[in-house]
Amino acid sequence: MIKEIIAVVNRKRGAGKTMTSQSLGEGLKLKGNKVLFIDDMDGQGNLSNTLKADKAKPIILDVLTRQENIKRALQDTEQGDIVASDTSLFAADLYSATIMTATITSPLT
Ligand SMILES: Nc1ncnc2c1ncn2[C@@H]1O[C@H](COP(=O)(O)OP(=O)(O)OP(=O)(O)O)[C@@H](O)[C@H]1O
Ligand SMILES: [Mg+2]
Hints:
Layout: H1 17-30, E1 36-38, H2 46-50, H3 60-64, H4 70-73, E2 74-77, E3 80-83, H5 89-103
Parallel strand pairs: 1-3
Antiparallel strand pairs: 2-3
The protein binds adenosine-5'-triphosphate (ATP) and magnesium ion.
Magnesium ion binds next to helix 1.
């Protein structure tokens, strides 16, 4: 059963989101919790690289687009469990930005 979901979010680049996620996860594990990392949705895959996730396995994009069950995307690495991400998330990021731009009406018009 999932006890808690913690999202580390900030619009600013290089603000320490990935580092905070990893440190928080490690701390929670030390306290006896089971932790599943879900890597970033912006296509960098930094935590996946750090945890040496298997690039051949399904990633979070496959889960979000319902092509894979999340159970098949779970990876058990030496440094923790993760649902990985990779650069294909850039396209998803661009796609959602395009949808948002199309639906937001400018206050200047
Ligand atoms: N508490 C900290 N003390 C010192 N350096 C830190 C700390 N947190 C993060 N950093 C360093 O700051 C840089 C950016 O951190 P990080 O990659 O976690 O940011 P991010 O918000 O995930 O970036 P991005 O927006 O590119 O995904 C890294 O080089 C990281 O090692
Ligand atoms: Mg990051």
